[in-house]
Amino acid sequence: MDIDKINQSLHNPARFHLHLFDSLPSTNTYLFEQGKTGAAEWSVVIAEEQTAGKGRRQRRWESRRGKSILLSLLLRPSLESRYLNLLNLFTALTLARYLETCGEKNSHPALEISLKWPNDLFIRGKKICGILLEASFAGERLDYLVIGIGLNVNQDATDFSEEIRPVATSLKLASGQEWERESLLAGFLEAFYEDYRRFFPGNFAPLVQLYKQKVLFLGKPVSVNSGSEKIRGIFRDLTAEGYLVLERNGRRTLITSGDIFGGEFGHGAEGRAHGV
Ligand code: BTN
User: Fold this and answer.
1) Cα 148 to averaged position of ligand 1 atoms, centre (Å)
2) Rounded to the nearest 5 degrees, what angle is found at the Cα of 236, between the Cα atoms of 231 and 242?
3) Is residue 70 within 8 Å of 63, Cβ to Cβ?
4) Which of 20, 56, 162, 164 is the most exposed place for a label (fewest CB within 10 A)?
């Protein structure tokens, strides 16, 4: 990737503090450390490759060098911590909406993206992007958070390990065309910035509504793996905080984090790193 190209594609480059690395263990780990010593809001760390990329729930995130967008973004919102999960939903929604408009604008075929609660992006049943949010607190108060995004862009099927090939896809595989990562990244940062100003700090009801239109399995039977246990039920609703309401035997249970699986994904995908 070329940092000048990214800056040229940004309408307002001064808004962001971009740092491009050839290789890092993990963009999230790096930026989280920088956050402790006062890294500015809208710091963005990008890497061509990660040697210890992290996924959710202690999984690893693999990435073939130069094929993805691997980025972390630092924010310092004044947000009640019970709304923190909304940043997961927000990031997934904003990226999905951006990618859908991108197809139309840049003469790529239109893409239809679905969301899997809380923050995975899917195209035709395969994962295209994962998001990892890490937050730092000063006592009860949220100090800063790092949003990590791993978007599969120009991978061919053979770039994915055999293990995840059946469940992973890329923009290239979905559209049949290569994508220019610099302009894609710049466009996403701008879309994120605009949407963030629209929905944060307090315009959450429309955010949850929009998210619900794109989320998989709403109203359907799912199983939820919360780490310690697996529970089945109907994915009935989302709360104002973006938590999942699961209905079991007529009773409602609130799920604050976990992996959900519906019929079409089966249970085989559990525990795998959906990256490469
Ligand atoms: C998941 O689906 O489990 C989340 C994957 C998040 C991967 C991204 S890649 C950039 C950033 N740095 C990391 O180490 N992880 C996130």
Assistant:
1) 5
2) 90
3) yes
4) 162
CA–CA gap between residue 129 and residue 170 (Å, rounded): 8
For residue 65, give the amino acid letter.
Answer: R
Task: Work out the angle at residue 196's Cα, subtended by the Cα atoms of residues 59 and 243, and round it to the nearest 5 degrees.
Answer: 50
Write out residues in the chain with pLDDT < 70, as ranges.
103-107, 263-276
Task: List for the chain the helix, strand, coil content (%; round to 5).
Answer: 35, 30, 35
Ligand 1 centre and the CA of 147: distance in Å?
Answer: 9
- Alpha helices (H) in the chain, listed in sequence order: 3-9, 27-36, 85-105, 171-175, 181-199, 204-214
**Ligand 1 near 150 CB (within 6 A):** yes
- In three-state secondary structure terms, 44 is strand
The string of pLDDT tens digits covering residues 102-152 is: 866 666 778 999 999 999 999 999 999 999 999 999 988 899 999 999 999
